[in-house]
Amino acid sequence: MTPVDLFETLTSTQTEALNRLRAGDCGPRWICAQRQTAGQGRMGRQWDGPSGNLMASWYGVLPVEMRRVTQLSFVAALAVTDAIRPLLSVPDPLKIKWPNDVLYEGRKLCGILAQSETLAAGLGVVIGIGINIAEAPKGLSYGTAALNELTAQPQTVESILDALDATLTRRLDDWLAHGFEATAAQWWDQAYGRDRLCLIEQHPQARTGTILGLDDYGALRVRDPVGTIHVIASGSVSYPEA
Known about the structure:
Blueprint: E1 4-10, H1 13-22, E2 29-36, E3 39-40, E4 46-47, E5 54-62, H2 72-84, E6 94-97, E7 101-104, E8 107-119, E9 122-131, H3 157-178, H4 181-189, E10 198-202, E11 205-214, E12 220-223, E13 229-232, E14 236-238
Helix pairs in contact: 2-3, 2-4
């Protein structure tokens, strides 16, 4: 088991992990908080973290190039589904939405944020993972789900983190040893929205299309209605008819 530092309250597990890397702590280690006051999400969004849900960040120094960091969201998402799929009463609706959300029946169950920083010791990496276990956050612009609504037996932060530590360690080892190709293929097997039209918003532009999979670094390949293939490295993807 990777060492875990548990806090009652933190501003953000992600910020704590990044600060430790900058101070020379190379990990690997988990930072876990029972409550966050300013959790970080993708594109600067705040991640709401009610008590009883998993709010954790893994940090370490990895022997990889900076350009591969974008692949880590997919490595982590597969680790999450590996950890929780066996617990679900009905596992089929568990899917991964590009680039960093795990959904159940289209409702957000988990968010992931991968960040990096170049250090003297190598590339410092932080993988933040938030899983709704006890409670689904309310009042958001999208649907949410909680794990304990979907399992026969109630789960705890400790039990999920134990399972996630094992699956993330295995997924990271496979990725470091064998590259991204297998990860991308397994992500596609669980990809949300592959059977419907999506809307991609990249301010000030927007386009519709059908997702085709990932490129070598995790950008989304999309075919528009006239057959042109676009590679989307950033932006917001939604499924209006869902």
